[in-house]
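Run Trehalase through structure prediction, thanks.
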Amino acid sequence: MHPRIEDYALIGDEQTAALVGRDGSIDWLCVPRFDSAACFAAMLGDENNGHWRIAPKGAGPCTRRAYRPDSLVLDSEWETEDGAVRVTDFMPQRDKAPDLIRIVEGLSGRVTVQSTLRLRFDYGSVVPWMRKSDGHRVAVAGPDSVWLRSEPEVRTWGKDFRTLSEFTVEAGEKVAFVLTWHPSHWSRPPLIDPFEALRCSVADWQAWAARCRYDGPYRDVVVRSLITLKALTYAPTGGIVAAPTTSLPEELGGVRNWDYRYCWLRDSTLTLGALLAAGYHEEAEAWRDWLLRAVAGDPADLQIMYGLSGERRLPEFELPWLRGFAGSYPVRIGNEAVKQLQLDVYGEVIDSLELARRSGLPSKPHMWRLQCALMDFLRTAWRQPDEGIWEVRGPRRHFVYSKVMAWVAADRAVRTLEADPGLTGDLDGWREMRDEVHKEVCERGFDAERNTFTQSYGSRELDASLLLIPRAGFLPPDDPRVVGTIDAVRAELERDGFLLRRYSEEGTDVDGLPGGEGAFLVCSFWLADALEMTGRTREARELFERLIGLANDVGLLAEEYDPVGRRQLGNFPQAFSHLGLVGTAFNLFGGESTKTTGGAGQAE
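Sure, done. The structure for Trehalase is below.
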């Protein structure tokens, strides 16, 4: 039986990440970066596509598991008839090559433990050549090599293209495995002390978590989300991936399977706001600097997403040898949506840069020039139809949220000039654009009969992104049109009494795809924010409590949730979901000084 998405836990080193199942099997790992080819891809296929399981002989899922407090170090424990054993999984922060460390510790009795390693490079398609060298088992194929050793050394042998170990541990005994990837033309990797690495990793994570300035209720939940966001950060550049996975389905057995191992501009203000509110100014500045580098160039060429270092070419293709998670095919690498026109990203970038300036992050000399260039392009481009925030693959439309974010761009540019008269810019022209966009949206994007804004001009469909209208400052929260929109979105898009779909699906061709999807978790956090802004704080807090109850046993959220199957869906863990959780926690419980507002979450 295929594991559920929520059966996995995350470990990582801020350059890549692995997913560990309840059964002790690591079924997903891309090396050396988040967007590299996987050497363990069983999650999207089967065991023959690569995995590494360590567990007591003959055992099933672990009895319990948990992260060590305020860290990304995972402990999984099994209780068997012969005794109890713990496996500790983590990836220490690194200089060059990634290390994956698994420490087996006897807790009671005498337990026989098995390790089964199947290395398969290039997303499970390449079986490497195995050899012994300097106390290691070495796997080599093309540009990739993986070195495996144990401390103390245990007997290891090869069988049926697997690397096997079997040993016993008694209470207090420990055996550590260290798996290191590096380019195949390099010599043996430097040895790492696994037990010292564990001590340092726990201490480093706990010191980082201690910097969090959130002191409201649900602190453990907020810190877990912030640690997850830190783990999804590509440390060399400051970019934050949407998720460390590709092709986890939005509908089991469906085709809505996308590669999320890239950095989305739509997340930019929400990310910046959450980091600043939590007190992580260094990370916020690194993200701001990544943003500036990524979007540099012709404003007409602005993309909705970029690679970890700002790469622009993310060609999409399919892997026919992988059957997909729970048979959800195809498995896609790359993301064709990179070519889409999404006008909202202009507003999100300008909003982020205005927030960065207002929050006291050190300014960059070219930052204002970039904003002016974006505004020059947007002055005429905002009138175009686009694909919208959700990357629909149907026809372009005049999406209301895209127009609202064009208004945000003009509004933030005007605010910046008004606050700093020393800057130069077309103040009158931007004010005129702001007024024109506002008037058009209220006339063409509002259904007076139903008292709600709509997904696009002239449509009757609704969209959860409309909940961001008051957060963007487009209209005040007590405006009857805002209240009407919130109520209409809940009535049409709500599922299971509190979960929201992104947009109407029945009888529409808005996304150009067959099938459906689950409830989009960040949208429900937006609903909680909207309820709080309109004075319905009790409802907002009840909704927040129900949402955090959807996290798995180690506090992780995927992109979506299936209220019928009661399971998580989509790529996992999802930065957007955890960003929504952090922002809503600050809005509801963080006090006035740490509330987030703005187009996608601005720290005041």
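The chain has two domains: 5-188+199-208, 211-591.
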